[in-house]
Amino acid sequence: MAVGFSTPLWATPPAPSKVSVDASVTPECQALVRRLPNVTLAQCQQAGLVVSAARSVQGRRILVRDVPDEQAQLRVLVVGGIHGDEPSAASVALHWLALARDKAFELPQPVHWRFIPALNPDGLLMAQPRRTNANGVDLNRNFPTPEWVRDAPHYWAQRTGKDPRRWPGKEPLSEPESRYLHEEMQQFKPHLIVSLHAPYGVLDFDGPTTPPSRLGRLYLDQVGIYPGSLGHYAGVHKGMPVVTVELASAKTTPRDAEMRQMWVDLLRWMGERLIAAPARPQATGKS
């Protein structure tokens, strides 16, 4: 269907061209699929994930996958698993990665996709998965928004009652996971970031251009901005559109057909709103 418009370290797998169902990324995928709903070992292996240069607090390598196109002028970064207790977000990222590789789903203008399915592997793989990373920092409050030093601690203390699940950290970009994503934004220079979360069942948006009104059954309901959040930093401060997908459940994914419809709706909106946008300078870095 064409779309017209101390924890053991993860081992290093070979390059994507050598990935097969029976080798290469088995240790990482075995760890992931034990926690991720609706993802099989074969699906994880076939995703062709590779290790980035970044490590989590506990030393796990952060996994990434590029789906490039030599003609691409549009770059899109898809991030899941910022919060470790939202495994459905990482699962959807992997399902969408498979759709990004499917030639049946194409835009008139080629896209260079970059997927980071589980930015917070420590939180995800703890005995009891938790929102924060291994340092107890909410990675989605750790980005360097203006006046972070004043606003982020104040918001945490006054608005959340010092909720430990939402601690922004001692300073912006204090965590290796948030630093890695920040570096990816600087090097890859995405025209769009899609950030997958759960469980509020809405669609949020920050940044320029008209937001998508819906993705599948998720409808736009902009929830505001938070000091240190990815949407506030990239979308509001840097003018880089951020679509935040809040799935309805943190523990289960939507049905496969619904995930496909969400993907089709995302591509349709990109075709309408981003294809004609002026291209940013070419990316200079690689994961």
Structural class: alpha/beta
Average of per-residue pLDDT values: 88
Q: What is the 3D form?
A: globular
Any idea what the radius of gyration is? 18 Å
Helix coverage percent: 25-40%
- How far the N terminus sits from the C terminus, by CA atoms, comes to 31 Å
Hey, roughly how much beta strand do the residues contain? 15-25%
Short characterization:
The protein is 29% helix and 16% strand.
Could you walk me through the main structural features you see in this protein, from its secondary elements to its overall organization?
The chain has eight helices and nine strands. With 287 residues, the chain is an alpha/beta fold. A seven-stranded mixed sheet has the order 1-2-4-3-5-9-6. A hairpin with a 2-residue loop joins strand 7 and strand 8. Helix 3 crosses helix 8.
For the structure shown, list the relevant keywords.
8 helices; single chain; alpha/beta; disordered C terminus; 287 residues; 29% helix
What topology does this entry show?
Blueprint: H1 26-33, H2 41-46, E1 50-55, E2 61-67, E3 74-79, H3 87-100, E4 111-116, H4 121-125, H5 148-158, H6 176-188, E5 192-197, E6 202-206, E7 214-215, E8 218-219, H7 230-237, E9 242-246, H8 256-273
Parallel strand pairs: 3-4, 3-5, 5-9
Antiparallel strand pairs: 1-2, 2-4, 6-9, 7-8
